[in-house]
């Protein structure tokens, strides 16, 4: 036992309020997930939400701030297909075992599983239309089943293997002449974008257009390459001199509905007019056109292409239209192509921008039902690319998904705002990258523009200047159409953005507000705004009001691409109620604080230190953060230290370049920070002495770093300049001569900045406590000279510390507060007379922990008052922290056996052993308030973090952390827009209004009309469709006055009704009734809602009829006038 007396003053117990077991309670608050095994993605543009399916059967929905839902299948099986049923507010998934699950998204809490059906054959495709309530499920058996998402059953309508049936009649005699893949398996089903009655079914042998109502085949589009045609294989193909039919791999329909594109296994794309199944419009690869025609000149270059550059199949196609033209036929389009590259190309995908398809009216040809040459020429002209863009990916591209702005029609490809790219990454993980989609200038220039109105009267000089300035500013803001990389929510930090490490930091109020003010603004964020989330105050109880007293916390994460990102994880983010939903995510990303060292290191001025070829190999070893001065220190594995300074001015202006005195220091002030970023590069310490062992920043303009070879440097940031280096210290050289054969014992492994007195020097000074691996300690004192510079003195005393130190801190002996090297400490050092030495104030405890135990001494080099060795059964101590609660402090040591050892201060009595949740063997990151982070690695890649768990040692009166935010997924959801109608290939005319033209040339296939979604449902479901009925009310005896929870349930149901999007059919209205709670109030509300909706539909139909009649009369009058004019002039 050690003395608790020093200088005649009784020493206080700093752990008085933490001695009882009930003062400690371990709890987990928040699990921050990163989806590294994404298998399927679905996008709902109506609610601006994203659904994720994983390889382990996990399902996740991401929306606006705080809007997250996470659940999983009963078995950990891979999700193959995932789609939203927009008209019913449901989510449909199909897993590897061919089970179809239907999830209702309208209730609060977790989505409700409504159905689980299994198909007898492997599922090859899933298609759901927003205009009706049936899903098309393609099977490997060759059939396409229909599933009723309202009645939750397989409907009686089945599309047989129509290509096989068709070819038995048409190709029976020619099959032996063509190398044909088995056409029995449907690989994709696409609904006609403007006619719900027509369905394109892509088989490996070709694409078939089927009429659902007539149960007939309208066209079969099969690419047959003649002898000598290079196709996608080129002139080196083994079957060049044979008839070939390359297998179809994907299909996409032009937004007008008049022609389609089919991808093939040899990497070529065939384009077809819907009205002409015999002759393709053209066949091309990414770099060649008309590859379906024999090319004799190509034989001369037969050996030019290496067999190693084999072309990939076309894996996926999507054809997008945009609201960029007043012509009903549309404007410029974009074809997104995944695949078709050679094996030597950079991973990624292309988008081809095509001009508008707006041909003129052709001369009349009575009786002809074939495609007019004028239209065929117009289609071919609209397939000549205006521009091509390339979206690179970090690995081999696996899939892509478009994110439309607001329309679910056109197979989810209309007017995309962004594109999500999935690619292979480390350890079989999946990388997700996002880019913007916008029309390039070369495409926009082809679109008609309306002239700007001019102001009347002569312009004055100020107006000219204003116009010129406005024009200049507008030119600076012009979007050049180049895809911009978009930032993703933290759940999608994968691939290059995958997290490798995180640390937790507590900030005082002033630096916190300075750091986060406006830092969460992100103009390049993926547009996810769906739903609404809030904290239920009743569930949190009275504890919610204590959240505002919690300290502010910042989470700093390191990533595979060498970036450092900041997130706000403060409890104050949860201070939101239902009336004021969450405005920020939890944790809240701060993108304007992101640091990208590679951006700075690519500057030509640093090429001698960081050659361009070495940048891809750079990795971050650790990140240190000064919580008051807001300086960030990035330690690279190669031994360099990059220093960034916070600047609230997010401009990218450059400083002056200047040569520094010390060659190890390189100024970075001349390098501009990325636009809108607030951390600016300031300094590089490149000692070239091996890896960094320890780096200690201070908040008063100093930092110290030690290296593997035993070198210690102290840097004054005011120069900047090096004010101490151990390799030029003569005393250090003499001692190191005895230890040259034991390098580890001569390495500084612990560095601690403080402002305190020592037993041998009672004046408070800025000090650096440096502990060698052997336990020997050096005390460096920094003193300010008369000319303002700082000099370093070494105290002769060398107190002993535990070997292999892992933690060091200096506490006020009377309050337990830390003696930091901050602004307050610097004021004490600059004005020592303020220290009341006579009264005994200013004494301190130095607590230092090592691999085998912990020590506590008075005034650093004074009397030892506490000592203890770690228990043998506790395992290895990985890190320590002094935690504070209720004005008391205690030392907590975290071991590799998931235990926390609690010791009193200053006596170091072992008080408690706390059992922590066993997450993984990765080190824990604690903070001084007792909160800590645990990490769970991705199973197939231990270097990647799949989950970060935010936990605490004091789960007391913090119930608000355990309250999962209430989420309404349907809040703010837009109604399903009307189904797009057929358009003619020629200019609009009276035929379009009357409707006769729509039945023939409008659909382009000779049908007699366009069916509605309700008619399609009735056709597919059959005459005996069991429409679900509303849940019957409870018996009268069970009715009772509504309690508080009942009233909350009524409010919940009413809110769900308000959030549900208006459905396009009666079937979806019935689905809303089924989703109700069944109570009397809910049934009355549902009945009133149904009645109002029916009346609204009637009003809308009458208004549509009225507008159609007016339009028809106006068109008739115009045509009559034109005809009269022609007769009048004798035409």
Automatic annotation (TrEMBL):
Residues 1046-1068 have a biased composition (Polar residues). Residues 450-461, 1025-1036 have a biased composition (Pro residues). Residues 618-1029 form the Lethal giant larvae (Lgl)-like C-terminal domain. GO terms for cellular component: cytoplasm; plasma membrane. WD repeats lie at residues 241-282. InterPro entries: Lgl_C_dom, WD40/YVTN_repeat-like_dom_sf, WD40_repeat_dom_sf, WD40_rpt. It holds the Pfam family Lgl_C. One of its GO terms (molecular function) is GTPase activator activity. CDD domains: R-SNARE_STXBP5_6. Keywords: Exocytosis, WD repeat. One of its GO terms (biological process) is exocytosis. Residues 442-463, 1021-1078 are annotated as: Disordered. The keyword Glycoprotein does not apply. Belongs to the WD repeat L(2)GL family. This is Lethal giant larvae (Lgl)-like C-terminal domain-containing protein. The lineage of its organism: Eukaryota, Fungi, Dikarya, Basidiomycota, Agaricomycotina.
């Amino acid at each position: 036992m050690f003395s608790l007396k020093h200088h005649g003053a009784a020493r206080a117990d700093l752990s008085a309020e933490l001695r009882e077991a009930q003062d400690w309670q371990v709890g987990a608050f928040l699990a921050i997930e990163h989806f590294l095994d994404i298998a399927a993605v679905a996008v709902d543009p109506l609610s601006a939400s994203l659904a994720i399916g994983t390889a382990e059967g996990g399902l996740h929905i991401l929306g606006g701030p705080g809007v997250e839902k996470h659940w999983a299948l009963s078995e950990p099986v891979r999700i193959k297909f995932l789609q939203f049923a927009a008209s019913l507010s449901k989510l449909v998934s199909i897993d590897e075992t061919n089970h179809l699950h239907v999830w209702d998204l309208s209730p609060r809490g977790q989505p409700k599983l409504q159905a689980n059906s299994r198909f007898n054959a492997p599922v090859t495709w899933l298609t759901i239309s927003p205009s009706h309530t049936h899903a098309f499920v393609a099977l490997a058996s060759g059939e396409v089943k229909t599933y009723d998402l309202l009645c939750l059953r397989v409907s009686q309508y089945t599309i047989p293997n129509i290509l096989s049936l068709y070819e038995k009649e048409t190709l029976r005699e020619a099959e032996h002449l063509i190398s044909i893949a088995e056409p029995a398996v449907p690989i994709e089903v696409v609904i006609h974008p403007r006619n719900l009655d027509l369905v394109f079914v892509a088989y490996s042998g070709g694409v078939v257009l089927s009429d659902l109502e007539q149960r007939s085949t309208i066209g079969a589009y099969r690419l047959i390459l003649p002898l000598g045609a290079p196709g996608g294989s080129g002139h080196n193909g083994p079957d060049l001199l044979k008839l070939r039919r390359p297998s179809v791999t994907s299909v996409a329909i032009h937004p007008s509905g008049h022609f389609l594109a089919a991808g093939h296994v040899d990497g070529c794309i065939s384009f077809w007019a819907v009205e002409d199944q015999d002759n393709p419009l053209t066949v091309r690869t990414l770099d060649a056109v008309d590859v379906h025609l024999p090319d004799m000149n190509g034989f001369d270059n037969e050996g030019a292409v290496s067999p190693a550059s084999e072309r990939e199949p076309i894996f996926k196609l999507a054809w997008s239209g945009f609201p960029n033209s007043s012509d009903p036929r549309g404007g410029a389009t974009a074809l997104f192509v995944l695949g078709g590259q050679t094996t030597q190309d950079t991973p990624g995908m292309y988008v081809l921008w095509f001009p508008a398809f707006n041909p003129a009216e052709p001369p009349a040809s009575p009786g002809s039902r074939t495609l007019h040459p004028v239209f065929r020429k117009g289609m071919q002209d609209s397939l000549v690319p205006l521009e091509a863009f390339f979206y690179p990916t970090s690995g081999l591209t696996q899939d892509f998904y478009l994110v439309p702005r607001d329309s679910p029609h056109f197979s989810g490809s209309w007017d995309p705002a962004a594109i999500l790219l999935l690619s292979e990454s480390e350890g079989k993980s999946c990388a997700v990258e996002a880019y913007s989609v916008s029309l390039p200038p070369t495409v926009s220039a082809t679109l008609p523009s309306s002239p700007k109105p001019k102001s009347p009267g002569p312009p004055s000089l100020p107006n000219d200047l204003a116009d010129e300035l406005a024009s200049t500013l507008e030119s600076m803001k012009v979007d050049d159409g180049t895809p911009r990389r978009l930032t993703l929510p933290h759940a999608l930090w994968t691939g290059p953005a995958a997290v490798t490490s995180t640390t937790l930091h507590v900030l005082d109020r002033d630096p916190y507000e300075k750091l986060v003010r406006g830092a969460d603004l992100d103009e390049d964020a993926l547009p996810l705004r769906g739903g609404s989330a809030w904290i239920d105050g009743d569930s949190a109880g009275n504890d919610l009001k204590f959240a505002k007293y919690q300290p502010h916390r910042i989470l700093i994460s390191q990533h595979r691409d060498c970036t450092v990102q900041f997130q706000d994880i403060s409890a104050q983010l949860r201070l939101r109620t239902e009336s004021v939903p969450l405005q920020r995510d939890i944790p809240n990303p701060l993108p304007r604080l992101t640091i990208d060292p590679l951006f700075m290191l690519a500057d030509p001025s640093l090429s001698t230190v960081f050659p361009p070829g070495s940048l891809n190999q750079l990795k971050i070893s650790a990140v240190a953060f000064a919580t008051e001065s807001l300086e960030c220190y990035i330690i690279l594995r190669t031994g360099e230290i990059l220093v960034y300074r916070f600047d609230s001015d997010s401009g990218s202006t450059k400083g002056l370049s200047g040569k520094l005195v010390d060659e190890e220091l390189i100024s970075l002030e001349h390098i501009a920070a990325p636009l809108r970023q607030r951390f600016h590069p300031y300094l590089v310490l490149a000692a070239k002495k091996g890896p960094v062992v320890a780096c200690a920043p201070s908040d008063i303009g100093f930092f110290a770093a030690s290296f593997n070879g035993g070198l210690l440097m102290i840097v004054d940031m005011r120069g900047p300049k090096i004010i101490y280096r151990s390799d030029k210290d003569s005393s250090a050289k003499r001692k190191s001569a005895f230890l040259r054969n034991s390098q580890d014992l001569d390495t500084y492994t612990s560095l601690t900045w403080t402002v305190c007195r020592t037993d041998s020097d009672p004046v408070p000074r800025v000090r650096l406590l440096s502990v060698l691996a052997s336990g020997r300690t050096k005390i460096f004192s920094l003193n300010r000279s008369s000319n303002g510079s700082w000099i370093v003195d070494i105290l002769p005393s060398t107190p002993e510390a535990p070997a292999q130190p892992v933690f060091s801190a200096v506490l006020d002996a009377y309050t337990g507060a830390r003696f930091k090297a901050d602004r307050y400490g610097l004021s004490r050092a600059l004005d020592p007379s303020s220290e009341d030495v006579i009264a005994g104030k200013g004494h301190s405890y130095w607590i230092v922990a090592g691999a085998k135990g912990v020590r506590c001494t008075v005034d650093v080099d004074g009397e030892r008052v506490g000592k203890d060795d770690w228990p043998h059964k506790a395992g290895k101590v990985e890190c320590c922290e002094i935690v504070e609660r209720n004005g008391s402090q205690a030392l907590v040591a975290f071991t590799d056996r998931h235990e926390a050892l609690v010791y009193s201060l200053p006596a170091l009595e072992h008080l408690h052993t706390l059992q922590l949740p066993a997450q993984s063997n990765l080190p824990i990151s604690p903070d001084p308030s007792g909160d800590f982070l645990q990490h769970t690695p991705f199973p197939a890649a231990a270097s990647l973090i799949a989950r970060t768990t935010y936990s605490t040692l004091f789960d007391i009166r913090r119930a608000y952390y355990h309250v999962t935010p209430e989420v309404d997924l349907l809040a703010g959801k837009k109604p399903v827009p009307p189904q797009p109608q057929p358009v003619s290939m020629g200019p609009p005319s009276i035929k379009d209004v009357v409707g006769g033209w729509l039945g023939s040339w409008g659909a382009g296939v000779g049908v007699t009309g366009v069916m509605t979604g309700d008619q399609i449902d009735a056709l597919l479901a059959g005459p005996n469709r069991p429409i679900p009925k509303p849940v019957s009310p409870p018996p009268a005896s069970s009715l009772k006055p509504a309690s508080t929870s009942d009233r909350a349930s009524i409010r919940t149901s009413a809110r769900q009704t308000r959030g549900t999007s208006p459905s396009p059919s009666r079937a979806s209205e019935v689905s809303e009734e089924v989703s109700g709670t069944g109570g009397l109030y809910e049934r009355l509300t549902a009945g009133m809602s149904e009645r109002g909706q029916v009346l609204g539909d009637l009003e809308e139909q009458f208004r549509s009829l009225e507008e159609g009649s007016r339009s028809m009369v106006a068109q008739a009058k115009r045509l009559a006038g034109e005809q009269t004019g022609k007769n009048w002039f004798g035409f």
